[in-house]
Design brief:
The protein is mainly α and 152 residues long. The protein contains 4 helices and no strands. Helix 1 packs antiparallel against helix 4, helix 2 runs antiparallel to helix 3 and helix 3 runs antiparallel to helix 4.
Length: 152
């Protein structure tokens, strides 16, 4: 697999936009209900993190694919463990930024903000795994023949 098999900027933008839109629709009402916060305030915070995540998503996924290619791995054939590592590393980048912002915006203690962040993180780890598997099925990597019998 060569660099010509990487996703292009248009595909990465579509990937990021759908990821964030579906994630917000699912996560914001759950978070507001689960933590007893105002839906509008939680939604604004969600949109802020969504925009930040879109930028991070495009950069992170591009370089993750390059690392896979340099190590002789095919980004289109990610198994369970590689998808799990991918999701965990992606979410780990947010914990250091998000906790203080959550605490400040929602007037929560750092402990409650950390709990909220961990709730979002756990949600998004599973969501990221499922979303990327479904996305790869709907929009396969260019120039790669996939064997549909092999995992997500």
């Amino acid at each position: 697999m060569t660099v010509r098999h990487l996703r292009n900027a248009k595909d990465r933008m579509r990937h990021a936009l759908f990821y964030e839109l579906v994630g917000l629709i699912l996560a914001v009402p759950l978070a507001a209900w689960g933590f007893g916060t105002d839906l509008l305030d939680t939604g604004i915070l969600g949109i802020f993190f969504s925009i930040l995540a879109m930028v991070w998503n495009m950069i992170y996924n591009h370089y993750f694919d390059i690392v896979l290619l340099k190590n002789g791995l095919n980004p289109a054939r990610r198994g369970f463990w590689l998808r799990a590592v991918h999701a965990l590393l992606f979410e780990a980048g947010f914990i250091f930024v998000s906790v203080p912002v959550i605490a400040w915006w929602l007037s929560l203690s750092l402990v409650k903000a950390l709990a909220m962040d961990l709730g979002f993180t756990l949600f998004y780890i599973g969501y990221t795994y499922v979303y990327n598997g479904v996305y790869d099925r709907i929009f396969p990597y260019p120039g790669v023949n996939r064997n549909p019998a092999k995992g997500l």
